Amino acid sequence: METSLRYSKSLRIHAKEKLPFNSKTHLQLHGELDTATGGPSYFSAMIRHLFPEALTGLGVGFHYDKRHKLRSHVRGKKEFPLGANKLVTFNIKGRCDFDQDFNQKNPVGAAEFAWNIMNFKEDQDVRFKVGYEMFNKVPYMQIRENNWTLNANMKGKWNLRFDL
User: What are the recorded Gene Ontology BP terms (predicted)?
Assistant: First the structure.
């Protein structure tokens, strides 16, 4: 099980488990506890399938949280390597949520560049991402170093994650 501490407005404890069906398909379960309220923030279950030859992933599943209750969602990501070593990529990704009546809610779509630097220093990998979220019309960035991740966008939203 993968666990992490996440902070934006409050500290949350996040857990994720991947249960494989085969080498390309798995069930991904994840949820979060908010330490400010002492209760769960959300729970999600998704079947994800990878198409490694096409550098593509698709997922479909359900998401439950306090505000929006039960929703279904579909997500996808396509990666385009910008070199033979695949350390720099151009990614297109999207997600769409549907309520219980299958009305579309909260579409998200982004285009981003990612640069992975392996062994930046000994035993230290670094990833930089810059992108543009198309529905909210906001640029964003991510800096990741082994267990630490900082996400921020140009509207002032940010969060910090530490993988345990």
Answer: regulation of monoatomic anion transport
